[in-house]
């Protein structure tokens, strides 16, 4: 049974704040990479491409964590909480909207034995 947690955190910066938000999110990467259970933690920005012209938030964090507990511990780190308080929740923050979702790769009714 897979215990991995996949997180997609999407951000819509306020107009003119795209580069600042991207740089702020990049600054979170080094400390997250120090967390033992962090398997992937990469911020990306949307680019134009004729083969992928869908719409979405222009900045997305792709995260993979070894398990749910590690992801939830990461979310409670002061640096992460401060980021959301200052940039997402505050009316003065640089982010207009955010959408954070977690996923599993385990199928429904997966019957693998627990190890």
TrEMBL record:
The keyword Acyltransferase does not apply. SUPFAM superfamilies: Dimeric alpha+beta barrel. The keyword Oxidoreductase applies. It comes from the Bacteria. GO terms for molecular function: monooxygenase activity. Keywords: Monooxygenase, Oxidoreductase. This is Antibiotic biosynthesis monooxygenase. The lineage of its organism: Bacteria, Pseudomonadati, Pseudomonadota, Gammaproteobacteria, Oceanospirillales.
């Amino acid at each position: 049974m897979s215990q991995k947690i996949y997180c997609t955190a999407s951000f819509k910066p306020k107009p003119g704040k795209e580069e600042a938000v991207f740089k702020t999110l990049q600054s979170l990467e080094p400390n997250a990479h120090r967390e033992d259970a962090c398997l992937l933690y990469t911020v990306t920005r949307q680019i134009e491409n004729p083969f992928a012209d869908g719409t979405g938030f222009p900045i997305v964090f792709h995260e993979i964590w070894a398990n749910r507990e590690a992801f939830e511990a990461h979310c409670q780190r002061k640096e992460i909480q401060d980021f959301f308080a200052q940039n997402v929740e505050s009316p003065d923050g640089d982010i207009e909207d955010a959408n954070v979702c977690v996923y599993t790769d385990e199928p429904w009714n997966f019957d693998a034995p627990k190890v």
